[in-house]
Specification:
138 residues, alpha+beta
Length: 138
């Protein structure tokens, strides 16, 4: 009897000594791969931000929603796209919103010996099959 008890305890004690996190072998579920609409929205955001980076007002304006284009502030749009400084951007993983997708963006500028990072977001909405436009400027 003592031998059986000792053998049971020897099997039980090592597993009790392990922390709970070491005993669990379950892994979190893999995130689902993005669907085609996510890819099209991300590509549109990338094209728009590249047009901003290069100061290409013509290509960027085509990618704006009617709401932004007809806001009546042409001077502000021209200033937004003027290429006075060296520019770059970083796009993070987006999320689905009611009307489209929102992507966190970091706008990086460099002038002289000073650089700046501005945290913002860009929102895109679908206008048709696989067509996306910017509905909120970063």
């Amino acid at each position: 009897m003592k031998l059986q008890l000792a053998s049971c305890l020897s099997l039980l004690i090592p597993s009790l000594a392990l922390p709970l996190y070491a005993r669990s072998h379950s892994r979190p579920a893999k995130p689902q791969p993005p669907g085609p609409e996510y890819v099209f929205a991300l590509a549109a955001a990338n094209r728009f931000l590249y047009a901003r980076q290069t100061g290409d007002l013509e290509h960027a304006t085509v990618q704006l929603s009617d709401r932004i284009r007809h806001s009546g502030n042409v001077g502000e749009l021209e200033k937004y796209f003027s290429n006075e400084r060296e520019r770059a951007f970083e796009i993070a993983r987006g999320r689905k919103i009611k009307s489209g997708y929102s992507f966190p963006v970091i706008l990086v500028t460099f002038a002289g010996d000073h650089s700046a990072r501005e945290f913002s977001q860009i929102m895109l909405v679908a206008t048709g099959k696989n067509d996306w436009v910017v509905d909120k400027l970063p």
